[in-house]
Amino acid sequence: MTKTFDVSPLLRSDLPPAALKWTGFPKYNFVGGHNDADSVPVADLVAAATRVLNREGSTLSMYGLHSGPLGYRPLREFLADKLARDAGIRCSPDEILITSGSLQGLDLVNSVFVGPGDAVIVEEMTYAGTITRLQRMGARIVGVPVDAQGLSAHALRSALEALRAEGVRPKFIYTIPTVQNPTATVMPEARRREILALSTEFGVPIFEDECYADLVWDGERPQALRGMVDDDQVVHIGSFSKSIAPALRLGYIVASWALMSRILPMKTDGGSGALEQMVLAEYCREHFTPHVAALRRTLRGKAEALMAALRARFGNAVEFEDPAGGIFLWVKFPATVDTTRLAQLALQAGVAINPGAEWMTDMQAGKVRARICFAHSPAENIREGIGVLAEVCHREFGVPVREAKGHR
Amino acid sequence: MTKTFDVSPLLRSDLPPAALKWTGFPKYNFVGGHNDADSVPVADLVAAATRVLNREGSTLSMYGLHSGPLGYRPLREFLADKLARDAGIRCSPDEILITSGSLQGLDLVNSVFVGPGDAVIVEEMTYAGTITRLQRMGARIVGVPVDAQGLSAHALRSALEALRAEGVRPKFIYTIPTVQNPTATVMPEARRREILALSTEFGVPIFEDECYADLVWDGERPQALRGMVDDDQVVHIGSFSKSIAPALRLGYIVASWALMSRILPMKTDGGSGALEQMVLAEYCREHFTPHVAALRRTLRGKAEALMAALRARFGNAVEFEDPAGGIFLWVKFPATVDTTRLAQLALQAGVAINPGAEWMTDMQAGKVRARICFAHSPAENIREGIGVLAEVCHREFGVPVREAKGHR
Description:
Oligomer: homodimer
Strand content of chain A: 5-15%
Order of helices and strands of chain A: EHHEHEHEEEHEHEEEHHEHEEEH
Shape of chain A: globular
Number of helices of chain A: 10
Largest sheet of chain A: 7 strands, mixed
Number of strands of chain A: 14
Strand order of the largest sheet of chain A: 2-10-9-8-7-3-4
Mean pLDDT of chain A: 96
Low-confidence stretches of chain A: none
């Protein structure tokens, strides 16, 4: 019998744990940032794919098409117009880099700024993927509280002063101002000005992540922080994952050439997927705005179904704010509940939720919170799933004290 | 006047130099691994896109479609069949990971094995992108000579013995056995067995890169090294960039679950582009084999045009072997020529070639070599471009001694 060649002694010693095999999606899938399947504009994407491929398909023979490393030019032109219209950002198409999702935008910006031991300021409640990335890079993560208007200016001042007293200059302030992840708030203009003033006073740039910004319910959004400055005091990233479809893997970075020229050499992937770029540029020109308006209505309906289900099954035992938009709800449980344990047990019962500990810089504080995504599941599935969650929570933690009256 | 916020003091100090602005392609573009524009199967890609999107487009709403993190299952099923048929690799679709080009395959495999100071064995003449990646990772690159049959077994033995005497166990032997980059040789079966035996004897796994393997002119290729073992003694990567189109950014890793489960957590991109995966799976089922057969004929014609142009303009001043397939020619110049300087001057004259120093672990030895790609340019453009190259070379280095007779 042939001895199996064992490569494990040769692997690096600092690898993450081995992956588990994928076994499909949970029945009640309230994680992952997936979107509403019926909202994918299939027919219009087919039409766009047909037109653009017939017109330009031969350019697939070149790395970078005929547009170079910043990405497919018509998509960057669409984005420059869209950002001006929706985000109040004035930039040229050559100040936009198309990335493989905003995840790659995160990675690229981090890669030029952050080294082991470097301090980075983030919102105390923030995107779990940002926390894990910064941890893997050995960064010193400084979490700053948020309130109903987003990142707290006075708490940010305190954090910056404390770091200055240590002689530490953080690399940037990472903020998700428009449909904050996970709290779903929108930072109003006045708060943005305060945050910018602190950035100027302390000489710390801002890394602005607006990947959910298209999903504000009423379509009204304050000017992006990037739009309020003329230069790289603010680096901005965005995404098409939430507005069109996450599997496409398309996002973008907005930066002036001084910074972009340092970011580009870190993007060593030979370009982001060309088909997505071509099809989206073709599709978005005509369809983006009405598509997203319809999507918001759909998502708002699901958000309301989730909130109704939580009120029906948990009553006053949980707290949450109406989200300003987006795809998730940030829910606070009583102190007796450990949401990490709740998430484990719920998953066994087919319900997937995000434990708050993964979404907070203070993991302990996160143990009473959970992020529950609503974009993917149909309303009936949301109702059933929250019902199952309530049963699990009641059995393990005695919360809700008694099953709230209401439909199962 | 507003002072510009200068982020440069906050950037990491170890960044690559700033990128230059992209100014379009050179007139005679003999670099970059681009492909033949007319060979892109546009009509069939449109048909495939239409069918697959109409059938499954709503699955774009999920990260990973309905297939999980290994990638779109029908594409992995196509690949499992294709690898069995073309490469003699027996693997299940769940031993295949779809990557964003084989570049990501390179990065992922490197990321689980290689740390600063780790020794990695590569062919002395190898893919420039591999050299730069390993350098950036701080690896100790050990180059081993190649001959007409690829990686030299006796030179590999010497290298392994020397490392063993130092108490060093290299992480892997990186080899491009089928249409080697840049020498375009094909490693015959007997040599593969020798290399495998050395891998077994010294306990060093093989990292096999077959991204050009579909482009062997006569379609005959020896069994992949991966096919000659049952386990992760060989990790295998491949690509669709050379067979279909580089801008699509689709490649794959073949590894058993023991190793794949360690690689997967390093792929933190939310999935590779779904459109490309869906369209290619749909297209390739029917069309891959005849498409590639036609493409090989086209590429062979261009290879012959390049070789004829070199003989016509340089005569005996340069040496090259007939490539067994692929998209490039590896050309040796006389010792009086510095191909790094030649490449700089030629670029000013509109001709882009790859200086050999970037394709050899011994950069000095590379100064008399150049890699010249032929896949993209039409034959007439090849002839003209080589004419310009000869003029530049003659002017700067006196080579060729006199312009060879022949058409301009």
